[in-house]
Amino acid sequence: MSAPKVLVASDLDRTLIYSAAALALTMPDARAPRLLCVEVHESKPLSYLTETAAGLLTELGDTALFVPTTTRTRKQYQRINLPGPPPKYAICANGGHLLVDGVSDPDWYAQVTARLASECASLTEVREHLAATADPVWVRKHRVAEDLFAYLVVERELLPEEWVKELAVWAENRGWTVSLQGRKIYAVPKPLTKSAAVRELARRTGAVRTLAAGDSLLDADLLLAADRGWRPGHGELAEADWTAPAITALPERGVLAGERILREFLREVREVREA
Questions:
Q1: CA–CA separation, 256 vs 132, rounded Å?
Q2: For position 2, what pLDDT does the model report?
Q3: What is the pLDDT averaged over residues 264-271?
């Protein structure tokens, strides 16, 4: 009899993998963990995890159904070279694309776009509002991701906090969510969720248990949909002191939080398999 399937859906950036700026290496240099680069962009190293985390992730991929679950576009996701077996499934564009062996499932995408058309304001309306209200003094780039949502790249130290709050209220009234992550401000339709895609995968694969991890506001629905969830000691959710009954708030920050999350995933997977 085969072991029960555990689906592990994890956010990537600032949850499992970290840019140099987000590593939070606060220990003495001589005690810093060895790092493995897992993403190169324009010939430059971009994202890392610890070598220990790489070993844990490889083990996780061998013992559970590991599903990278990210707000990244498909193109941005495909730059990442994670250790371990290549994931059969991945969730990109905050749930807009469900990849099966690297290819977007057309039926899922059709379901998602139909929901967006009927349940919230259009991307065009949101883009026009961002263009009209965001000050070029602190905006560096306007971007659209997969024709599903929009984001700005900003100078964080110049960004008016009041503007972000006003944008959040404006978006809320139109069925959209605003999330500030590092130098990016995301405007994402509320029906576009990681949790919906994870539920679909759990249905397809017959998973008996779902585990999740994430650090941002856009991960809250993913964590709430899982049987168990973990969040690191940094990020939007930590700053808001956000928690829920099945969620564990970890004290670790930066790249060591990613290592701890993988340990927690593996411990839970072993318990399910041994039960």
A1: 40
A2: 57
A3: 97
Chain-centroid distance of CA 9 in Å reads 9
Would you say the C-alpha torsion 254, 256, 259, 260 has a positive or negative sign? negative
Under a CB-based contact definition with an 8 Å cutoff, are residues 269 and 6 in contact? yes
Report pLDDT for 273.
87
Instruction: Give residue for tokens 């399937």.
Output: 5
153's tokens = 């790249």
HSE-CB at 125 with a 13 A cutoff on CA atoms is: 13
Contacts (Cβ under 8 Å, ≥6 apart) of 75 = none
Rounded average pLDDT over 163-171: 97
Encode the chain in three state secondary structure: CCCCCEEEEECCECCCEECHHHCCCCCCHHHCCCEEEEEEECCEEEEEEEHHHHHHHHHHHHHCEEEEECCCCHHHHCCECCCCCCCCEEEEHHHCEEEECCEECHHHHHHHHHHHHHHCCCHHHHHHHHHHHCCCCCEEEEEEECCCEEEEEECHHHCCHHHHHHHHHHHHCCCEEEEEECCEEEEEECCCCHHHHHHHHHHHHCCCEEEEECCCHHHHHHHHHCCEEEECCCCHHHHCCCCCCCEEECCCCCHHHHHHHHHHHHHHHHHHHHC
Alpha-carbon torsion 44, 59, 100, 111, what sign? negative
What pLDDT, on a 0 to 100 scale, did the predictor assign at position 1?
Answer: 44
User: For 206-213, what is the mean pLDDT?
Assistant: 96
